[in-house]
Amino acid sequence: MFDFEILGFERWMHVIAGITWIGILYYFNFIQVPALAAAAADKDGPGPAAIGKYVAPRALLWFRWAALVTWLTGAGLLQGLGILGDAFMLKSSSFGIGLGAWMGSIMLFNVWVLIWPNQKKVLGMVEATDDEKAKAKRTAFLASRTNTLLSIPMLMFMVSSHIIVKAPF
Question: What are the entry keywords (predicted)?
């Protein structure tokens, strides 16, 4: 009973953190990026400063920690089920969930290693020249779009993990 309760709580945390992570990912890509472009183009409006100063830092805080909690609880679930190694080694019986776990791992790497450090430059949280900010903006943008593209197949592998998807080899 105790293992079931722990795994149930871990699954609940994984789902809640995952919804938060992917929801904010979609917010950035489908709402904030176009809104910042529109605000910058609107010469009579208030400009994008308020979003960059008040909204983006808070959204990035939730984004990066939700990513970490999602990954840790997912790994904990796989460990609790006794398939963590098999999933990451893409062994036949854990191939589908393993692909999802690898996509989630790539996405976590993108958040913490590419998106967050570069967004700190873009938002002026760390010193950067205009050239460094331009490069950081592009790097963060590409990593975020990559995560958006990976999110759909990753989610499909996660929600269909009860169906055994065997390795094609």
Answer: Membrane, Transmembrane, Transmembrane helix
pLDDT at 113 over 70: yes
The span from the CA of 70 to the CA of 108, in Å, is: 9
> In 3D, which of 12, 23, 20, 24 has the Cα closest to residue 76?
12
pLDDT over 70 at 166, yes or no: no
CB 111 within 8 A of CB 64: yes
Q: Is the pLDDT of residue 53 over 80?
A: yes
Contacts of range 99-104, beta carbons closer than 8 Å, 24 or more positions apart:
99/153, 99/157, 99/165, 100/153, 100/154, 100/155, 100/156, 100/157, 100/158, 100/161, 101/74, 101/75, 103/150, 103/153, 103/154, 103/157, 104/70, 104/71, 104/74, 104/154, 104/158
Phi-psi group of 111: left, alpha or beta (phi > 0 → left; psi -120 to 50 → alpha; rest → beta):
alpha
- Determine phi and psi for 122, rounding to 5 degrees: -60, -40
Q: pTM of the full predicted structure?
A: 0.89
